[in-house]
Amino acid sequence: MTEFRPSRFEILPTIVKNLLIINGLFFLAQNTLSGPMGYFDFEEIFALHAWQSSLFRPWQLITHMFLHGDFGHILGNMFALWMFGSILENLWGSKRFLTFYLVCGLGAALIHLLFLSYEFIPLTNDYEAIFRLHDSGGASFNKAMIGFIEKYNIRFENQQYFISSLINNPDNTMLSSKMFEFITSYYQQNLNTATLGASGAVFGVLAAFVYLFPNTYIYVYFLIPVKAKWIGLIYFGYEVVFALRNSAGDNVARWAHIGGAIVGLIIVMTWNKTKKKTFY
Questions:
Q1: How many angstroms separate the CA atoms of 185 and 195, rounded?
Q2: What CATH number should be reported for the domain whose range is 14-118+195-271?
């Protein structure tokens, strides 16, 4: 099976339809009930947080899949879910597709958390080194804080003045305490960064579609026909390159995307292990 030729096809099957509705309701709630003037912070409670964060809760491994950052984020994910997920649900049935979707999202979350934990190791070690010097204070404490600020390229107002004051007045405990509070806030902010979106699960869906129907044409921008296998390989390669680069300012959970695709591919290959598959 290298092309999709259905005998009976529902354009909006049950699970895909309900996932679209649930994601839409969550997005509406995010933008009406949450925020500074809202009742509570949806992202704090339902988005995925690092294991090291005090905000981490087990249910976030699932609930983060139903939150999105902005309209473009949810639109892209839901369009891909409908485009590829509808075909898979028609092929597998509702129960199997729902299981597949949730496992891909869960697997993506776990892989993302593993890489996040690895990335936090130097930050945590550096902060703990400063924390151990906190009680003794003095020049060593100030030097460690200045080194932390320079290493992580932290910028703040009147930065040069504060750094010069720390160097020239090592016994100024009030100034040292203020800088330590700022560094602690920076550290907690990084630990508490929220991850949200259905992208991990959607990448699993895309990977399964590419594996099952590699020679089906997808019209890029609705104009350019490209076989699914090439789109899948290019997109996956793009995510891997940027994940390895780990560029500053990149707020996309690349390893969640990669993890979702890998989990999806493993599942679909397991389910189809008795069938001979080629990309021709």
A1: 19
A2: 1.20.1540.10
